[in-house]
Each structure stands twice: as C-alpha cells, then as structure tokens.
Amino acid sequence: MEREQLEFDVLFVGAGPANLAGAIHLKKLAQQQGREIEVCIIEKGESIGAHSLSGAVLDPKALIDLMPDFREKGCPIEETDLRDGVFYLTATGQLRLPYAPPSMHNEGCFIISLSRFCAWLGTIAEELGVNIFPGFAGVEALYDEAGRRVIGVRTGDKGVNKDGKPKSNFEPGVDLLGKVTVFGEGPKGSLIREVGKKLGIFAGRMPQVFETAVKEVIEIPAASPFLASPFTVLHTFGYPLGLNTKGGGFLYRMKENRVSLGLVVGLDYEDPGLEPYQEFLRFKKHPLIADIIRHGKVLQQGAKTLAAGGLYTMPQLAVDGALFVGDSASMLNVQRLKGIHTAMKSGMLAAETILTAVGKGDVSAATLGDYRVKVEGSWIRNELYAARNFGQALSQKGIAKFITLGAQFVTGGRGFVDPMNITDDASTLQAGRFRPSTQVQDHDGKLYLDKLTGVYLSGTKHEEDQPCHLLIPDKELCVTRCWETFRSPCTRFCPGQVYEMIQEEGGRRRLKLTPSNCLHCKTCEIKDPFNNIIWTCPEGGGGPNYSIV
Amino acid sequence: MDIVVLVKQVPDTESLVQIAGDGASIKKDDIKWVMNPYDELAVEEALRIKEAKGGSVTIVSVGPQKTQETIRTALAMGADKGIHINDPLAEGSDSLATAKILAAAVKAIPFHLIIAGQRAVDEDNYQVGAAVAELLGIPHVSLVAKAEILDGKIRCQRAVEGGTVVVEATLPALFTTQRGLNEPRYASLPGIMKAKKKPLEAKTLADLGLDPAAVGAAHRKVVVKALRLPPERKAVRMIQAETPQAIAAELVRILHEEAKLI
Ligand SMILES: Cc1cc2nc3c(=O)[nH]c(=O)nc-3n(C[C@H](O)[C@H](O)[C@H](O)COP(=O)(O)OP(=O)(O)OC[C@H]3O[C@@H](n4cnc5c(N)ncnc54)[C@H](O)[C@@H]3O)c2cc1C
User: Fold this and answer.
1) A306 CB within 6 A, ligand 1
2) Architecture of the B2-219 domain
3) Contact A460/A297 with Cβ under 8 angstroms?
4) What's the pLDDT at A306?
C-alpha cells in the first residue's frame, strides 16, 4: 500500500514529560537563534495526559531550567507544602522512622498530577508551534535502505476490524519522517523494543527491570485526620508486601481534599500467586491508610509501570537518526522514586544536541552521541550514579537488604559489590511456590473497588472491533506449561482483568482475553515467565483517559 | 450542494463528571471535551453527500473559545469552513435561544441542506435541530437512519416501532441523525495538518444582529434547578460455591430473600 508521507525536522514519539520538555526546549532554542524548525509529537492517548500516571512529587529543577516563569504560565501544582513521613507497616500497626533517609527529603518539591501537568505542557508546546497529534500510535520504526538509520515512524491504521479487514471508515496510517526521531515511549516501549533488536542498543547492558503501581485519586472528607496531620507526603514499606518483595506505598496530598494513593510493586517478585491489585487493596485496608480515606470516594484509578533499573541498564542513547529519552532510556532515579525531572532534563539535552546536529546537517550516531556526553556531564548522571546499586539492594531478601543499603549509604552508592547484578523480571517467579493471593472481597463500589470498577474509573475504552493488540505466539503453552508451573500468573499480575483462565465443558482450559480492558501498563510483557506476551499499540486514541492521576 | 452542519462540543461521557457547588451545573476542570457523537454522524453524512454531489460543508457551532477544537476536528475530517459564534453573552443559553443564534448564523450563508445531531448528549433536549428548522421556515425530519438526495428533495428513512417510515421533504431542509446512519471517519493526520489552514470565522451576537436580551443565561425560559448523579453502581457480588447446583441455589436464595425479586 502507498502511504502518505509527512516530513518534519524532528519527530517525537510519545508525549510524556521527556518528549514534551524536549519539544518545548527545541522550539524555544530555535526561536532564540532565529531558526525555523518543524517539530511533531505523536501520542497514542486520546489527548495529551490521557496516558500519564505518576505519583507525583516533582523535583522542579528541570522545569525551572525549561521555563523559569512556569508559575505565571499556569503550571498546575497540587501542593507546595511538602512534609515527609516514612512509615514501616506491620499488619496492624506502624512505626514512623525518626529519621527519613536524605533521598526521601522533598522540601522544595511540588505535588502534581502528571496527567494534568502533561496536558498543560501540551498547550505550551502547541503555542510554540509544535504539531501535536494525540490519538496516533507509532507502530513501526522506519529505516533507510541500508536498515541502519532511523528515518521516522509509521502510525497505526485505523478502522480495521477484528479479522484485520478494513471497515468503511478505514484510515491508513501515515509515514512520519524526521531528520531525527526521539523515542520517549516511557517504560517498555513497543517501538524501542524493535529498534533495540535491530540496532543492538541494549547489548552489553544489564536487563531493564520494572515496578508496577496501582494508583487512585481519592476524595476524602474534610474531617479526615490526614488534613490536620503534620504530613503531606507519606511513604510506607513493609506490609502488605513484606520485606522480601521490593516496593512500597505512597500517599500524597492534593488540592480540594483529594489524595493520591498508590502501591508500587517490584516486578522481580518470586511468588506466582502474588497479585499487585490485591496487595493494593490490602494496603488500603491497613489502619494507617484506612483511617485517612474512611468515607472517601475513589475518583480515578489506574496502573502504570516505571523503569527501575537505573544507570547500569541505560541503553545506548543515540543511533543514526534517533535518540532515546526518559524512562525509555532508563533515566529514572529509583532511590528517590522520581523520574519526571530526569526525563524532562534528558529531553532537553536531546533537544540541544538535535539543534546542533540538524544545523550541521549531520544526524549520524557520532554527532548525536554528543547527547550521551551531555547526560554524563549533567546532574542526571550524578543522581543515577549515587543510586546505581540501590534497586539491586532492595531486591535482596530479609536482613541482607538493610546491610547492603547501609554499606551503600556510607560508600556513596558503591556498597560491597559494584556493579551489583540485576535479574530479568521475567525469570524470577519460583515454580511450586504458588500461594493464591489473599483476596480482599468486600468491595463497596465507592472506596474499595473490584478490578472492573477500577477499569471503569480509569476511563479506559478501546474500539471493540479491532485486532487484538496483545500477541500470544504460543497459546498452547498458556494451558499447559504455564498453567502447570505457575497457575497462569497473567490472570493476577494484570491490573485490568485482561486475562482470564476459563474452563470449558469437558474440562479443557482456555485463556480468554479482554484486550479492551488494557490500561497500557505493559506488566504482562514484562512479567510473563515465558516471554509469551507481546504488547503492541492498539488503535490510536484507545486506552485510559486519565485526567487527575 | 451546500451543506451546513450544526455541531456542539460536549463533555466526554467517560470523563470525570462531578456536580459543582451550585448544585445545578457540573465542574468543568477535569472534563474532557469532545464533539457530540450524534454530530459526528452529521459531519460524516455531509461529507459523503458532498463527495457524491459536490458542493461544500460548513460547520456552525456556538460555544466558548475551546469549541474551536471541535470545529477543527470537523475540518480535519474534511469539512471546508467553520463559523464559530463565540460571545460571552451567549453563554448559558437554553435550547430555543441556541437555535435562534444558529438560525441567524445560517441565514447569512447559502445552503441547501442542514444536518444536526438528534440531541446533544450533555443535556439531552432534542430541541435545537427542530427549532432551527422552524425559525428558518424549512422542513425538518428527525432521527434519520438513512438519507438519499434526489432531485430537489431528500428522502429519509426513520425507524418506528416494528418498521421503517420513508419521508420526503423538499430542499432546503434540515434533518437530524440517528445511530446507524453511518460510521464516522477518523480525522487523519494529513487532515489535521490541512485543517489548521482552513477558514474558521469567529462571530459575536452583534455580528449576527441579535439582541443579547433574547439569549444567554439570564434569559433562559427553561432553568436548571438541580442536577443529580445517577445512583452509584453497586459492586458486583460473585457467588462462590462448589457445584453449579449450589451456585444456583444461592442465587435463588439471594433473589428471593435479599433482593425480594422472586
Ligand atoms: C506510580 C508511579 C509513581 C511515580 N512517582 C513519581 C514521583 O513522585 N516523582 C517523579 O518524578 N516520578 C515519579 N514516577 C516516575 C515518572 O512518572 C516517570 O519517570 C516519567 O513519567 C517518565 O516520563 P517519560 O516521558 O519518559 O515517559 P511516560 O511518562 O511514560 O510517557 C510516555 C508517553 O509515550 C506514549 N507512548 C508510548 N509508546 C507510544 C507509541 N508507540 N506511540 C505513541 N505514543 C506512545 C505513552 O502513551 C505516554 O504518554 C512515578 C511513576 C509511577 C508509575
């Protein structure tokens, strides 16, 4: 099929904080230098911010760089008065740490809703003349004839039915060409996966690892004890995950008696019975949290992963014609649970590199490689270097975790072994350790929700009549080895109830998929022990409709 | 064939709808705004007629500044030009006043056919299309599931209980859309690029020669006194039991003793 081509100077794939900051910075720099530059951003969500979910405590240092007048420009800030409390939870009680580690200090930071923040950055970018196209997914990277240089991406076809046949409103995808393409797809990008395979950008690095969070924004009564408490930012560890599973809870104060509540679960967990969604509900039932949210109402729910591998998993940052930014390029500082500031900064450094390269008419990996030099010379590197073994320490079990953390603390991140090894999340499930997760049953439809009500409150919708976007190369494996060894963990790790194992008459099992429930968190592709799930972008515009998470 | 399509920007029904402090309107902050789905059908039908018969498609909409996004979407689908009546004095108009404004805007341009959504999904009044036709003195056919342009007239099909009615009207005429009329096209990427350069005229009430005292929130003939959200969805209860017989027995018990339905 002949496809229409549209040419730009620079093409950004994904409208997260990394690429939005990159595009804004690029336009501003070009303006200052009196240069014209055509910039385009595509985003698979129906609007900018619709697929953005985060905590989020924002360290504003990149934002200040990008836009010193961000307040005057109407930056949506939820809370500026940040007072931290770190709690260790037991099943029924809690212990407040008298001393919060320095990485947990948040003075000077703000609480934001990433969804709102990205929507706002989108309007700023548009005012600067960036061509923003929400509702368009990049489904294939395009290369030059030699297959070495990235020249753009193809957007997905729309109006294709379940069987792959065009419907009456069929709209073919187009080829977007850019002198430089910037991939800011967030964690586990579906294009960077393919680019990585082809151009080897992950070769020689440790495997990227991830954490998944279920999060809600809850409206709490004005009488909630939290609003009068000395804290606005709570972090917890211990219950319900225990000390052997990486992760923890957070609760942040927002405007209008709202709180942001979430539980982050490291995807290197071992128990195939663990269900992050149930752990989240158990977290909500813990007295510390339950007291705060009592009589509250969930306004929005969602789930997303974050790339937690850190410095040693950072891929090659530039290839001929393309750069990688944000979570896609492992810029997140897992010690601070913060990746927005580093994502934004990486986008800005990419922009500076691109402007020079495009000016010289040389977008080779060598010239674009200056981006890595810039990252190495920036505070991103300092932050990530100090945290380079932190995630690995958290992955240790029991007391070893604290000994390692202590050693890292006194040695500036080096610890006993540097680099510490990282294990691929897909390989950590232990066969035969199956213990069905404790199910929280008393859903009330308002504050404690079952998965499907949660999906409803994420605003998720997909065109129903389209090909399934979750590819399962070996369906037989699901009902044989995977069921026998792990009891189909996909039915538990997916927070959207996309996967169900059903038993048909005659006793035969069948994996039933409901792809329209997909929250685009990609946990399935990451955690599937047989690497038998491949996540691809569904028709552009489908997925969650986040606005406040 | 010059076609006018009346379009409204409405809250996405999937977005977070909350009632505002006054109890009679909704909070506008966290809402996503989209083209009224019935108007999408109207735009699509207009484009199909234009593709078959030639002519032009003009989008007309009343609303605040952000309504432009919705008009641009229609232009990106393929409409030729937009007219946006953007005047703070028009804000809060009821259906009849909205129809007066639209009729005044349409009167100023040549047209053979007007297509409107059967209703806007925000207030569900079903009035604007019919009122515009009445004010312009042209025939009106509502809830059209199929439309055919013949020589100087339009033949429409409407679903009625147990069958279909075929109605004809002479042009110029106005009809409103019913689900199933067509499958609206997507705004394509090149379409969105082109739409940026298509003419979009902004007009005020004064431009249309309208008296502000006839429209706007202060002059509503119908006043919204209160809004209430639909009852909360009750959580689903899963019946757990060993055998199908036991599940059935428990279901019957619940329906009889708790729900008191049987
Ligand atoms: C629960 C949680 C809590 C967090 N808390 C904090 C915090 O308190 N502070 C902090 O600083 N950071 C926090 N983070 C991390 C932070 O949110 C991320 O580091 C940051 O969002 C990364 O930005 P990004 O632009 O790289 O990617 P993302 O924000 O993931 O954005 C990527 C965008 O690209 C789009 N996209 C992907 N693929 C395609 C494609 N093929 N075509 C088109 N579009 C595509 C996606 O829809 C998405 O909108 C948290 C993360 C989570 C999940």
Assistant:
1) yes
2) 3-Layer(aba) Sandwich (3.40)
3) no
4) 97
> Any chain A CB within 8 A of the CB of B192?
yes
Angle between helices A340-360 and A379-386 (to 10 degrees): 140
Question: Of all atoms in ligand 1, which is nearest to the CA of residue A20?
Answer: 25
In this complex, is the C-beta atom of A282 within 8 Å of any C-beta atom belonging to chain B? Answer: no
Hey, which CATH number is domain A5-68+116-205+315-386, 3.90.1150.10, 3.40.30.10, 3.50.50.60, 3.30.390.50?
Answer: 3.50.50.60
Neighbours of A253 (CB within 10 A): 23
Say yes or no for a CB contact (<8 Å) between B189 and A459.
no
Let me know: does A190 contact A537? Beta carbons within 8 Å. yes
Which stretches of A123-174 are assigned E, i.e. beta strand? 131-134, 138-143, 150-155, 158-160, 166-171
CB of A114 shorter than 6 A to ligand 1:
yes
Minimum CA distance residue for ligand 1 atom 35? A14
pLDDT along chain A (549 residues), means of 10: 93 98 98 97 97 97 97 96 94 88 86 97 97 97 96 97 95 97 98 97 96 97 91 94 93 95 97 95 96 96 97 97 98 96 98 97 97 98 94 87 88 88 94 74 88 94 96 96 94 96 86 96 98 97 96
Task: Provide mean pLDDT across the span B131-150.
Answer: 97
CA–CA gap between residue B103 and residue B87 (Å, rounded): 16
Any bridge partners for residue A95, and if so which? A88
Rounded Cα–Cα distance for residues A374 and A361 (Å)? 20
